[in-house]
Amino acid sequence: MKLILTTDVSGLGGPGDIVEVKDGYGRNYLLPRGYAIVATKGAEKQVQVIRRAQEASRIRDLDHAKEVKAKLADLGTVPLKAKAAAGSGKLFGSITTADIVAAVKSAGGPVLDKRALEVSGHIKTVGKHSVSVRLHPEVSAAFTIQVTAAS
């Protein structure tokens, strides 16, 4: 079965790639989840749209990745407010990667891809936590978030 990927699929390819997979894998996994579309002549035009969208949000090259790393280093500690139980320091729920991306953006930092963030374990307590982000295959950056209780 010939498919065009719409998102990154580990071990298979990235958005816009045309891949040949077994029928069951494509029909039962990739297509229902929206990870791929059937490769037709009309879908070739969609590939161009997907690639343009990917280029706009992707780190362009090694130099751009180093610039983004420098911007993250200049931020220092990123503040993040979350609902917490009074006195205990435990959060209601946990901090997600989308919360971290929004906090970095609101602190004046660069726009990051939430899928590139690497958080060790779940963040369920108030305090400082380290987060790393994979900007480029050769460049990764680390920064600290300060989780505080929202009043």
Automatic annotation (TrEMBL):
Residues 13-40 form the Ribosomal protein L9 domain. SUPFAM superfamilies: L9 N-domain-like, Ribosomal protein L9 C-domain. GO terms for cellular component: ribonucleoprotein complex; ribosome. Keywords: Ribonucleoprotein, Ribosomal protein, RNA-binding, rRNA-binding. InterPro entries: Ribosomal_bL9, Ribosomal_bL9/RNase_H1_N, Ribosomal_bL9_bac/chp, Ribosomal_bL9_C, Ribosomal_bL9_C_sf, Ribosomal_bL9_N, Ribosomal_bL9_N_sf. GO terms for molecular function: rRNA binding; structural constituent of ribosome. The keyword Ribosomal protein applies. GO terms for biological process: translation. HAMAP family: Ribosomal_bL9 (MF_00503). Binds to the 23S rRNA. This is Large ribosomal subunit protein bL9. It comes from Actinokineospora fastidiosa. The lineage of its organism: Bacteria, Bacillati, Actinomycetota, Actinomycetes, Pseudonocardiales.
